[in-house]
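Thread: Newbie trying to understand structure tokens

Hi all, I'm a second-year student working on a class project, and my supervisor (Dr. K.) asked me to get a predicted structure for one chain before our next meeting. I've only ever worked with sequences, so writing a 3D structure as a token string is new to me. If someone could post the tokens and maybe explain what I'm looking at, I'd be very grateful. Here's the chain:
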Amino acid sequence: FLHTPFPHSEFFRSLPFRTTLLHGMLGASLIGFHLFDYARHFLSCCVRMLSVEYHSRRGGVLWLEYNSRRVNVRVSHVGVDAEHIKEIGGDAETRAMVQHLQKTYKNQIVIFGIGALDHIKGIPLKLKAFEKFLEKYPQRRGQVVLVQAITPKRHHDEATAALKRKITDRAQYINERYSANGWTPVHLVWGPCPLRRRVAFYKISRLLLATSIREGLDLTTYEFLYTAGSEPKSAIV
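---
Reply by user tm_fold:
Sure, no problem. This is what the structure looks like when written as tokens:
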């Protein structure tokens, strides 16, 4: 199952190991994608670069004939365990975390965001957008905070370190420009953010700000919806 978007054939063909990657993927019996667009891109690459034709049947069934084998291609979404989220949201440990966060952000409208330390998550753009919001609506200063949880990447390199500096510098600039009377607009929360902690943040947040530039599937939006339930005050942007 490919959790990330599969690129268009015009981009994929520029990779020096494009055919090796395709042959490797076709070694599986079943290949899954989040969206039909991603599956279509993959099938197009197989046709254009390997001359492997695909077949389809009514009902969304897709497959390829490769090395005298049938390789099935499936489009399916990954979901969340709604009952588990509901269970965690109501237990004593989570309630204690919620109470602590409510005290920390007392009398504030909390905009919450979460994402890995990765360029594709669009965190610097999110900070710029929030800065523009504070500039355009000065009456909201002192009332709204952006809490951005940033989870670590598995592999740390120079590009990741540069991105971290960029995020930190932008948040510091915004805070230096707009902080007043004990109010700080941007709060960066670094480190792992397991489900219980995410649920606690969801419960105190008025808005979930999901700004990935390109995403396979963002399950945090599902988690937020299940946590909010029928609460009319909660929204996703």
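A couple of things are worth pointing out once you decode it. The chain has a mean pLDDT of 91. The beta strands are 30-33, 54-57, 61-66, 69-75, 109-116, 144-151, 186-190, 207-208, 235-236. Feel free to ask follow-ups in this thread.
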